[in-house]
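Reopening this ticket.

The earlier resolution said the output was attached, but the attachment link was broken on my side. Pasting everything inline this time so it's all in one place.
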Amino acid sequence: MMSNLDRMRSRIRKAGSVRTKLTLIIFIVAILPVCTLGFFSYHRSSKVVNEQFGSYGMYAVDQLKLHVDSNLRQMDQITGNILSYLIASSILVEDKAPSTFEQFVEERDFQNYISSLENSNIFNIAVITPSERVIGKNLINEESLTNSQFWSIESLNNDRHVMIHIPDYYSVPSNDYMISLLVPLKNSFGLPMGSKLLIDMKADTILSLIKSFERDTKSHLQIKDASGHSLLPTSSDYTSQHNDIVWSRSLDTEDWVVEARVPYATFYESSTVILKYSVFISGLAVFLGVIMASFFSIRFTMPIKKLAHSMRRFGEGDLLIRTPVMSSDELGFLSEAFNKMTEQIVELVNEISQTEKLKSDAELKILHYQINPHLLFNTLNSIQWKAKLAYQPEIQKMLQHLIVVLDGSFNFKQTLLPLTKEIEIARHFIEIQRFRYDDVFTFNLEVQPGLEHCLIPRMVFQPLLENIFFHGFRDGHGNIDMKIFEEKNKLYMVLEDDGMGVKTEHMKFIGSGQKVPNKQGGLGLRNVDERFKLHYGDVYGLSIESDRNKGTKVTLTWPKTVEIHSQSKF
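Inline output:
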């Protein structure tokens, strides 16, 4: 057998040597020239493509900048025409509706004049008096203007201002963006002192240019003010990166910047395609060379590689892996033996897993299922109604709290509960104890916000609280502090009392989960600890610290898991 293995190792070494030699020869003769040619062709072609793309992008930004400048100049020209008209004419418009026919005619002539300045781009021109009276076409709703967020801010501005926004003061609401020019008329010119000229120009042409540019270049184009804020958001959802290709131009009429950002990957996409083809051709040549060099040796090395691969996969946990039997010699025998061995191991693992599952299910059922609750609930409900009919409210309330606690204890269908429900059961248990002991004890609860939907095994707080009243307090006298918080994706419940505490000689039994000899009780703590370990593993569960006649501190630890699609609250 050893001689066969030695021959096999020698054959593999020889095959590997031949494969290496053939690969080097083919690489030198064929692959190196192909790779060299691909490198130079890629470098030259990508340079030309990127230069053309950059020139097109800068040209498009220049055109948009010229268009915006042209629109703003047109609005300034209209402003100058209106001011010239007011200076040349002798009209007198008051800050209220005309009271005489002469005033009505003057105001009508002024309205006709500013309406004549409107065109396909200029949507509306209006003069707004200090009392927010609108002089112009009846497009602006005065009430909407008064309530407008735009006007509440801009009415306080005493300087010329241009903005791009969606107006909210028109009689017919619209979602179209407009360029608004607001000019305070510092000299009255026949108008009420403090009046302002408002010119609204449609921005649909600008938006169309932006969207067309973004669609063609897969970029993000925006208009920014001097502080860098975007004035005209577009449909593109884009987050700028430090390596973006940026084209920008400053406007001549306003302190605005037209900026286009193209992702680095998008800008060099054409170069990447060329590179991919070059790499593909070089890779194909390498692949063919490797195939030719490996053709003869692969017939001998493949069975060993298959077996080694299967063994490695099996060691990583893939228990269903099987190695193909490719021959009837010693390698075939090894493959068959490996397959039989894996089948036997899988059968053993399945048997152990099934046994452990049955064991865990049995333990959980033993811990949860102690009595049939159906008869108990019916009986308690009957007693509750009897107490209500007998006008015994305290008995009725005590039974209500008891029913909630028992319902949580016997709800076998739900192994894990939201933390808020488990706390609710604990509160009901505390109320039962108040009926029993009156107000001789205090109970303080602190829960870190945001943990409402975290899951916890049901009925774990009540046994811990019950242990305090039955073993820690004397006649119910004492203080209880309960805190629930998160730390490093783990949840902690710390329960402290100032009761009798646990004797030192008993702590070693309780800490190891054993029953204290010749003592009753202790099942609640052990059951809670075992349930947590069954659900989450041995690293989680209870830890207990206690000083005799000073009190006990119980810490409960479990991993944070969240209930999905729950609307429950504390």
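Reporter confirms the inline version is readable. Residues 14-19, 566-570 have pLDDT under 50 and may be disordered. The CA atoms of residues 191 and 429 lie 78 Å apart.
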